[in-house]
What does this fold into?
Amino acid sequence: MFTGIIEGLGTISAIHPSGQGSRISINSDFALSGTRIGDSIAVNGACLTVVILEGRRFTVDVSPETLKRSVLGRVKLGERVNLERALRLSDRLDGHLVSGHVDGIGSLRERKTLANAIVLTFSVAQSLSRYMIEKGSVAVDGTSLTINRCDSASFEVAIIPHTAGLTTIGHKKVGQAVNIETDMIGKYVERFVLNRGPANRDPEKPGSGIDTALLAKSGFI
It folds into this structure.
């Protein structure tokens, strides 16, 4: 589990195909003190397991599913990436709960400056936008951001100078692809509602009677 608060950047130093997957080595800009083999590190928001650790250089195995679902299938040698080590239970949760399981890929559609902020608009598929709400949370390349506006095909965020300087997101160009992880709460709520309707309930067991009709009638949807 992660917070979406990026610790620092790293540089892709090696990429080796491994069957349908790949093995990627990354040089971290910051010391990895306390990190051990088997620990999780989010690379551009994708949770990966450290299999080799040599000082500030670590290596991860990337599965075919992760290569297909995220931008890690497109990374190149020398590319800069966002890094965050796993959340400790004693840490402050300054961003939002990020699982490191990328839902899909979006692309930067528009970039503009507004006062001290960089306003970015990303295009996404409806399968991702359905879980987005205004002032809700989203992770873009592992960075926890607040959604200013959204519709069925896009969403907008504002990047402060600190975030722009610490992460790769401030350097993204129009057309570039990014990893998207939507807020897990929306996905769980949808799953709960769709699976708790009368048609899905065991008639032999008592149920709560919660379904989309009840929620709509009560003004929740």
The chain is about 15% helix and 40% strand. The helical segments are 64-69, 126-129, 161-166, 184-195, 212-217. The CA atoms of residues 198 and 204 lie 12 Å apart. The chain has a mean pLDDT of 90.
